[in-house]
Amino acid sequence: MARRTEKSETAFAHASKVLVGGVNSPVRAFAAVGGTPPVIAKAKGSQITDIDGNTYVDYVCGYGPAILGHASEPVVTAINKAVRNGTTYGAPTEIETKLASAVVAAIESIDQVRFVSSGTEAVMSAVRLARGVTGRDKIIKCIGCYHGHADSFLVAAGSGAATLGTPSSPGVPAGAAAATLLVEYNDLAGVQAILEENPTEVAAVLVEPIAGNMGVVLPGPGYLQGLRDLCDTHDTLLIFDEVITGFRVGYGGAQGLYGVRPDLTTLGKIIGGCMPVGAFGGRADIMQNLAPIGDVYQAGTLSGNPAAMAAGLATLAELREEGFYERLEAVSGEIAAGMQAAATDAGIGSKVCFNRAGAMMCCFFTPGPVTDFASASVSNPKAHAAYFHAMLDAGVYLAPSQFEAMLVSAAHTDADVEFTIQAAGRAFAAAAEFM
Ligand SMILES: *Cc1c(COP(=O)(O)O)cnc(C)c1O
Q1: Which atom of ligand 1 is nearest to the CA of 159?
Q2: Alpha-carbon distance 218 to 210, whole Å?
């Protein structure tokens, strides 16, 4: 039976009159794949339901936060309990300290942390701190890495920006863009060359330790340690943007997995348990430069608000359960293997490239290997769009962009996995038409 879409289409038309493009974040508008997005009514566990009553197995997971699945009971209970006591005071609370302690215990390189309300704010603030501490203005960022929408980072940014074909945005001052030096991901020699050409000018190397905003791209052997060594040589700070990888690829983040310590780390998504929270943290001697102790200013009316802190704390408690990441890895591995087999059955096994890091994965419609934005961006957009729409029609909800990750949650069941692989069979057959 064909999927019903009338109510979503009407609602989206109404939305488009009062919300720009009908959305509050661009990728949601389906610009890259065409069509109108399902308008969501509710979600529970691994499933998301639109206002026409269609239910999908969800691999968007709110673009990262929903690692426990949607409306996880411990999180819902914690939020309910918190809001009864008021949702913001503009004053210190004990629950902020509890979540901060959990973050410091989880991530080895973090001695002190500050909470903000989004990933964008976290990275923007961490970079300001790095500039303030080093007295330098320039930063190095990788082409295709996304660090939020602050001015300095909207230069060759991935995901939403890449999808729209606007690697940089009007409205970004030339000065802000000029201070951002670009290099391909995994290009260590490129970073070295920039640091040598700009001696004592680069405040920080900013990188996603596993890239999750140009699809999924893994760091090559020695890449992250190489960045660490180059930063040490040039007195430059190393910032890992773990907004998507933090608490997803392991409880200690990508830095725990690869054993490389950055000076500063940014967090978001999972840390707020599906509420708006970001964080940045790192070495105490660096963090102590932040107001009110130091001179680098940073503030937020809703930062550390108790309902969001409660959601984050309840989420992290679930992640510490024995075997949590082992099970997530097993389910993610089954999905990837099953989908790869489905692509082979559809006759395009050697024409697609699967990249996976734990519970984040991606299928590129190019033989690969995909190791940077240049190799990611040659993925066939028509094949991707056909695959995307076939998955949606079959009841599998993926991010409507080649450059977003497919994210697995703890709520995905064996039945979901089986259903997804079946759907993928049909979706790869649809994609094969364009390859
Ligand atoms: C999502 C993301 C951001 C931005 O976070 P927002 O909460 O959307 O502002 C920054 N960096 C990375 C790596 C991300 O994945």
Answers
A1: 15
A2: 5
Q: Is 180 buried (19+), middle (13-18) or exposed (0-12) by CB count in 10 A?
A: buried
What's the maximum distance between 2 C-alpha atoms anywhere in the chain? 64
How confident is the model at residue 302, as a pLDDT? Answer: 96
Q: Where are the alpha helices (DSSP H) in 23-148?
A: 73-83, 94-106, 119-134
Is the CB of residue 96 below 6 angstroms from any atom belonging to ligand 1?
no
Report the catalytic residues.
146, 241, 269
* 313-365 tens-digit pLDDT: 999 999 999 999 999 999 999 999 999 999 999 999 999 999 999 999 999 99
CB 130 within 8 A of CB 340: no
Looking at the CA of residue 208, tell me the nearest atom of ligand 1.
Answer: 13
Ordered structural domains, the chain, with CATH: 6-63+323-432 (3.90.1150.10), 73-319 (3.40.640.10)
Q: Would you call 115 helix, strand, or coil by DSSP? A: strand
How much is the pLDDT for 415?
98
State whether residue 393 is helix, strand or coil.
helix
pTM flag (> 0.85): yes
Q: Taking a C-beta distance cutoff of 8 angstroms, is the pair 249, 64 a contact?
A: no
Residues of the chain where predicted confidence (pLDDT) is lower than 50: 163-167
DSSP state of 2: P
Q: Is 183 helix (H, G, I), strand (E, B) or coil?
A: strand
